[in-house]
Design brief:
Blueprint lengths: L2 E6 L2 E3 L20 E3 L1 H17 L1 E8 L5 H10 L3 E5 L9 H14 L5 E5 L10 H9 L3 E10 L5 E7 L4 E7 L2 E5 L11 H9 L3 E4 L1 H4 L35 H15 L4
Parallel strand pairs: 1-4, 1-6, 4-5, 5-11, 6-10, 7-10
Antiparallel strand pairs: 2-3, 7-8, 8-9
Helix pairs in contact: 2-5, 3-4
Length: 267
């Protein structure tokens, strides 16, 4: 059986204090190092486990600036078969609605898939909108907080385990289907050198712009985003307190423990 499993990854700023453009309210990415969204690596790992068990291929998609090719190279190093970079200036500044519209259009362009997996949320926005919105655009069933996936005997239905706060639930969905993978539910495998070498030998990454997707530019990017950021100029500062503990090492250690008890750090 040859499954086609699509997995979405996002190229996100690798820092907690992100900066915003005061005029547009969008993230400033220039001069900021980026990484693959850590929660998307859960989705990548689950996709690879499904492929390893049932056969087929895993295709990673990322709607990101050109620099996100490094993220696709990383997941190909983990074992992903192909990568698609969806990149165009017309897509810049998109909220989740416009983003999911572009991603769903790219999934259609793939020519068919059985499962589309996404991380539960991203560390730069934490909306958790994308899986449901992509499923909505495509008219497909979807499920959040997925942790395990099996195929039924027919090979056309997927049995999904999802974890809630106090229990596990099992669902049966027709394929194709969209899954949001629970954060911290998988242990992403390391990058292998043999997989990285494929990048030189096979060039498994394609780039699609709006020239390929042919989407109405009124429906993508900042123009196609109904979300309005009213204000984004305030960056919270964490107050730091400093105290000098004098005395011998034993006395200083005792004072430190007493202070930690007073603050409630130790009980």
């Amino acid at each position: 059986m040859g499954l086609t499993i699509a997995v979405g990854i996002k190229w996100v700023p690798n820092q907690q204090a992100v900066r915003f453009d005061e005029r547009t309210g969008t993230l400033i990415r220039e001069g900021v190092t980026s990484i693959v969204n850590p929660h998307d690596l859960d989705a990548v790992e689950l996709a690879l486990r499904i492929r390893d068990r049932y056969g087929g291929k895993v295709v990673a998609l990322s709607m990101s600036p050109p620099s996100a090719v490094k993220g696709l190279e990383h997941v190909i190093g983990m074992g992903v078969d192909e990568g698609v970079l969806i990149s165009d200036r017309a897509f810049a500044g998109a909220d989740t609605l416009a983003t999911s519209y572009v991603i769903s259009s790219a999934l259609r362009r793939l020519g068919g898939f059985d499962l589309a997996l996404f991380g539960q949320e991203t560390i730069d926005s934490s909306t958790a909108h994308i899986p449901a919105q992509v499923a909505g655009w495509l008219g497909l069933p979807y499920l959040y907080y997925a942790t395990e996936v099996e195929l039924d005997g027919s090979g056309r239905k997927v049995i999904v385990k999802r974890m809630l706060e106090d229990r596990a639930e099992w669902y049966e969905l027709d394929m194709p289907a969209v899954l949001g993978v629970a954060m911290k539910s998988q242990l992403p495998r390391p990058v292998k050198l043999s997989n990285k070498l494929r990048l030189r030998e096979e060039n498994p990454i394609r780039t699609w712009s709006n020239a390929e997707l042919k989407l109405d530019q009124r429906c993508v990017g900042l123009r196609g985003s109904p979300t309005i950021v009213a204000k984004s100029t305030w960056t919270p500062e964490v107050p730091r307190r400093r105290q000098i503990l004098e005395g011998t090492p034993e006395e200083a250690a005792r004072k430190l423990v007493e202070a930690l008890f007073r603050e409630g750090v130790l009980r």
